[in-house]
Design goal:
Keywords: Methyltransferase, Transferase. This protein is α+β, with helices and mostly antiparallel strands. It has helices spanning about 10-20, 35-45, 65-75, 95-100, and strands at about 25-30, 80-85, 100-110.
Protein backbone atom coordinates (compact mmCIF):
# COMPACT_ATOMS: atom_id res chain seq x y z
CA UNK A 1 0.00 0.00 0.00
CA UNK A 2 1.35 3.43 -0.88
CA UNK A 3 1.78 5.48 2.24
CA UNK A 4 -1.62 6.77 3.29
CA UNK A 5 -0.45 10.35 3.51
CA UNK A 6 -0.05 10.39 -0.30
CA UNK A 7 -3.71 9.39 -0.78
CA UNK A 8 -6.69 11.70 -0.83
CA UNK A 9 -8.86 9.08 0.87
CA UNK A 10 -6.92 6.27 2.61
CA UNK A 11 -10.19 5.03 4.19
CA UNK A 12 -11.61 4.31 0.72
CA UNK A 13 -8.34 2.67 -0.38
CA UNK A 14 -8.48 0.28 2.60
CA UNK A 15 -12.16 -0.40 1.95
CA UNK A 16 -11.38 -1.31 -1.67
CA UNK A 17 -8.35 -3.38 -0.64
CA UNK A 18 -10.58 -5.31 1.76
CA UNK A 19 -12.85 -6.37 -1.11
CA UNK A 20 -9.84 -7.57 -3.12
CA UNK A 21 -8.12 -9.53 -0.35
CA UNK A 22 -8.84 -13.14 0.48
CA UNK A 23 -10.26 -13.82 3.96
CA UNK A 24 -7.49 -13.11 6.48
CA UNK A 25 -5.46 -11.45 3.70
CA UNK A 26 -2.72 -9.05 4.80
CA UNK A 27 -1.75 -5.55 3.86
CA UNK A 28 1.42 -3.61 4.64
CA UNK A 29 1.69 0.17 4.86
CA UNK A 30 4.36 2.72 5.63
CA UNK A 31 2.98 5.83 7.32
CA UNK A 32 4.93 8.88 8.54
CA UNK A 33 4.37 10.00 12.14
CA UNK A 34 2.91 13.49 12.45
CA UNK A 35 3.64 13.26 16.19
CA UNK A 36 7.39 13.44 15.56
CA UNK A 37 9.23 15.93 17.76
CA UNK A 38 10.37 18.03 14.79
CA UNK A 39 6.75 18.74 13.83
CA UNK A 40 5.77 19.53 17.42
CA UNK A 41 8.70 21.94 17.66
CA UNK A 42 7.42 23.72 14.56
CA UNK A 43 3.89 23.92 15.93
CA UNK A 44 5.13 25.29 19.26
CA UNK A 45 7.07 27.96 17.37
CA UNK A 46 3.98 28.84 15.33
CA UNK A 47 5.02 27.28 12.03
CA UNK A 48 4.03 24.35 9.82
CA UNK A 49 6.48 24.52 6.93
CA UNK A 50 6.08 22.14 4.00
CA UNK A 51 9.29 20.78 2.48
CA UNK A 52 10.41 18.95 -0.66
CA UNK A 53 10.81 15.68 1.26
CA UNK A 54 10.36 14.27 4.75
CA UNK A 55 7.51 14.36 7.22
CA UNK A 56 6.00 17.57 5.83
CA UNK A 57 6.56 16.66 2.19
CA UNK A 58 4.47 18.94 -0.07
CA UNK A 59 2.82 15.86 -1.62
CA UNK A 60 1.30 14.66 1.69
CA UNK A 61 -2.48 14.91 1.92
CA UNK A 62 -3.13 13.37 5.33
CA UNK A 63 -1.29 13.13 8.61
CA UNK A 64 -1.47 10.33 11.18
CA UNK A 65 -0.33 9.56 14.70
CA UNK A 66 -0.01 5.97 15.92
CA UNK A 67 -3.45 6.12 17.54
CA UNK A 68 -5.02 7.42 14.32
CA UNK A 69 -3.34 4.64 12.32
CA UNK A 70 -5.06 2.09 14.57
CA UNK A 71 -8.38 3.93 14.12
CA UNK A 72 -7.96 4.05 10.33
CA UNK A 73 -7.36 0.32 9.95
CA UNK A 74 -10.00 -0.65 12.53
CA UNK A 75 -12.67 1.46 10.82
CA UNK A 76 -12.13 -0.48 7.59
CA UNK A 77 -12.23 -3.98 9.08
CA UNK A 78 -8.53 -4.65 9.61
CA UNK A 79 -6.70 -5.84 12.72
CA UNK A 80 -3.15 -4.57 13.08
CA UNK A 81 -0.87 -7.56 13.55
CA UNK A 82 2.30 -5.52 14.02
CA UNK A 83 3.25 -1.88 13.96
CA UNK A 84 6.95 -1.10 14.02
CA UNK A 85 8.55 2.28 14.16
CA UNK A 86 11.53 3.57 12.27
CA UNK A 87 13.33 5.58 14.92
CA UNK A 88 15.78 8.43 14.82
CA UNK A 89 17.27 7.17 18.09
CA UNK A 90 18.54 3.73 18.91
CA UNK A 91 16.50 3.06 22.04
CA UNK A 92 12.91 3.17 23.25
CA UNK A 93 12.95 4.59 26.77
CA UNK A 94 9.36 5.75 27.29
CA UNK A 95 6.06 5.85 25.45
CA UNK A 96 6.50 9.60 24.96
CA UNK A 97 9.96 9.08 23.53
CA UNK A 98 8.57 6.44 21.16
CA UNK A 99 5.73 8.68 19.99
CA UNK A 100 7.99 11.66 19.43
CA UNK A 101 11.00 9.96 17.84
CA UNK A 102 9.25 7.45 15.58
CA UNK A 103 9.79 8.92 12.14
CA UNK A 104 7.60 6.40 10.36
CA UNK A 105 5.37 3.45 11.23
CA UNK A 106 5.45 0.18 9.29
CA UNK A 107 2.04 -1.48 9.61
CA UNK A 108 1.09 -5.10 9.01
CA UNK A 109 -2.68 -5.52 9.16
CA UNK A 110 -4.94 -8.47 8.46
CA UNK A 111 -8.47 -8.38 7.09
CA UNK A 112 -10.92 -9.17 9.85
CA UNK A 113 -12.90 -12.38 9.26
Amino acid sequence: METSNHMLDPWEVLKTASTLLKPSGSIYASIPNVGHITIMEQLLSGTWTYTESGLLDKTHFGFFTKAEIYALFDSQGFDIIAINQLMNTGERETRLLERTTAFQYIVHARKRE
